[in-house]
Design a protein that fits this description.
With about 140 residues, the protein is mainly alpha-helical. It has two domains: about 50 residues, no CATH class; about 60 residues, no CATH class. It is built from five helices and no strands. It starts with 16 loop residues before the first helix and ends in an 11-residue tail after the last helix.
């Protein structure tokens, strides 16, 4: 029914016990050896990256090492650099436009609204007093 899964000294089950059987405990402590063993077991599962007489037998390795793929990677990297610069400069421009609007345009809008309210109040007072309804101009 159940498989006999090997465990280490602490009782933890080993995920891929075949790759650990050939090594001693001292070798397993070394991170480099462990990474190498895990990588080799993954390569074996995928189908191996052995060499044949003509070159790589693995199609994925041949494709990833091709000139077209490397040119595509370079082009994608260049496009990402341009996109980052564009986003950065767009953010700067938006910040400049926003702060300029707040400093220059908002007080102008508030002042124009105050003047419109003042003109409206003057017109209402003039109509209550019986004077002709003409807009009042200030300043000149």
């Amino acid at each position: 029914m159940g498989r006999n899964v090997p465990t280490n000294k602490r009782g933890t089950k080993l995920r891929n016990p075949r790759c650990y059987l050939l090594l001693s405990a001292k070798q397993l402590r070394s991170k480099k050896v462990l990474k190498k063993v895990i990588y080799q077991s993954m390569v074996k599962r995928i189908g191996g990256a052995g060499k044949s007489s003509g070159g790589d037998s693995n199609i994925l390795v041949r494709i990833s090492n091709s000139e077209i793929v490397s040119q595509g990677r370079r082009a994608a990297g260049d496009a990402m650099g341009v996109a980052k610069k564009l986003i950065w400069s767009t953010g700067k421009a938006a910040w400049i436009a926003g702060t300029t609007f707040l400093i220059l345009v908002v007080p102008l809008i508030i002042e124009m609204d105050r003047e419109a309210q003042l003109n409206e109040i003057n017109l209402q007072q003039a109509s209550l007093l019986g004077a002709p309804a003409s807009p009042v101009q200030r300043g000149m």
